[in-house]
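Limitations

Structures in this collection are predictions, not experimental determinations, and the ligand pose is part of the prediction. Treat each record accordingly. The example that follows, with D-malate as the small molecule, is included so readers can see exactly what is and is not provided: the inputs are given verbatim, and the output is the predicted complex.
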Amino acid sequence: MNKILMTYNSTEGLEKLLSNPDFKVEIHAKPTPEQFKELIADYDGLLIRSEVKVTADIIAAAKKLKFIGRAGTGVDNVDIPAATQKGIVVANVPGGNTISAAEHTIGLMLSMARNIPMACSSLKTKEWKREKFMGTELQGKTLGLIGFGRIGKEVAHRMIAFGMNVIAYDPFTSTEFAKASGVELKSLDEVYAASDYISIHSPLNDSTRNLINADTLKKMKKGVRIVNCARGGIIDEKALADAINSGHVKAAAIDVFAKEPPVDWTVIESANTVVTPHLAASTEEAQVKIAQELSEVVVEYFSKGIIRNAVNVPTLDWETYKQLEPYIALAEKIGTLQGQLISGGLTEIALEYAGSISSVNTNPLTVAYLKGLLSTILDVKVNFVNAPALAKERGIKIKETKNQQAEDFTALISAGIKTEKEQLVISGTLFGHKNARIVRLNTLTVDIVPSGSMLYLTNIDRPGIIGQVATLLGKNNVNIAGMQVGRNEQGGEAVTIINIDTAATQDIVHQISNFSGVTKVKYVAL
Ligand code: NAD
Ligand code: MLT
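Predicted complex:
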């Protein structure tokens, strides 16, 4: 039974999760940090919106937590490095509220341009002041978007229809992508200088915190109007209030605040701001779409191990995943085998993806390899989430290369490891699309099925050694299932891999290591 904690009240759309007998969902809405810390220890999964902060302290207190699901887009309220370090998947459900957020942005823009909320309040007090609320048209004005992702693109599409000239700054998007939507990408300073309206649609992160501040506000046109439906914290609210008071900024429309509910109300109280309490995603449609998708994401993760929408694990679309699945398993096996064969502190790993897999996204293969390798080396629990972070933390350098040629194979994964003591290259491939084989150990050509229990020996290539090992195994009732011998030259060093049906005890391994001619022996379990 998977216990899931929800820190918000709405369950509409979560039916698939709530009716699943493998899950017990409990709601503790808006817990205080102290309550949250106490509660979290008991849960396998956590579902949140923006009402809580999942800090490093909360994550440290989570004893069983495997999954954090964010019902929405922004994951700035989760300490992702802390979750990643602990192997906890953090997934969001982006997309479900894109249209709602885009429509709200436009609503705010129009309200601000035409003074609609102010005029409405005035009229409700029985005032009739037509001159006071003179507005301005959007048509012909320049709209500068900061962030051209899902919401930015939808806002652009709609505002182009209003006759606006739309430009954007987004360091992670291409000119072609923007151009296809009729938007020209510009530098940030060009956006500041050219825009009559600036609308923010980027995440809150280290590069965007306080992006709109006293200095950047000065770079904007006098009379600029600013919209923020993205995240509080991207705008320095005090600097914005000052710029509105000085008349440099004509007006602002804000849905999100540095602290929610706000602590400093200055910008909200200004006569030239249109404000809403983080409502951009609050439509019936968005909430249901998000909840339905989140339900599926949670159920798939806990019941099938499929990770969708994770922000801290490389994820793949279903088709690519199915295509790569056997290679992911092979990469993990290579890592597990290599981790058990080498000794000495790890310094460098060189991975080569050759043949048909050289043209795909190989990031999941690298993560799988690291998971296999580090699981055999480290005491901590290693999974697909924390494997890269653990490798980085230990200063292991990872080099990835791709090669279109895979010798006689369709595809080949090679992992070369350097420790302080030795080097070991293992190459693996698939026979018939799903049968994993190790085909090379350093320079030796082999054909090993990487599964079950194995003995790995390096020995001088001379008669009698294998016979001695076989006799010892027989005496100890360990059945030999298969054997592979590889050598570069007669009488030189040979590698012998013996697949065995049951585990070999430490005593057996010790006795083999004492046989004359055996230079190394390792018991490996895959
Ligand atoms: P998205 O990930 O699709 O788009 C974000 C874009 O910002 C990306 O294209 C990214 O490249 C860009 N970006 C990243 N760093 C940047 C930087 N330093 N400068 C400029 N651009 C940068 O996300 P989205 O779904 O479009 O959401 C955008 C924002 O809106 C997020 O902050 C999200 O949390 C917020 N949001 C708010 C509400 C609300 O209720 N107010 C609702 C939905 C989303
Ligand atoms: C989001 O990031 O999806 C929105 O801000 C909505 C929310 O916080 O719930």
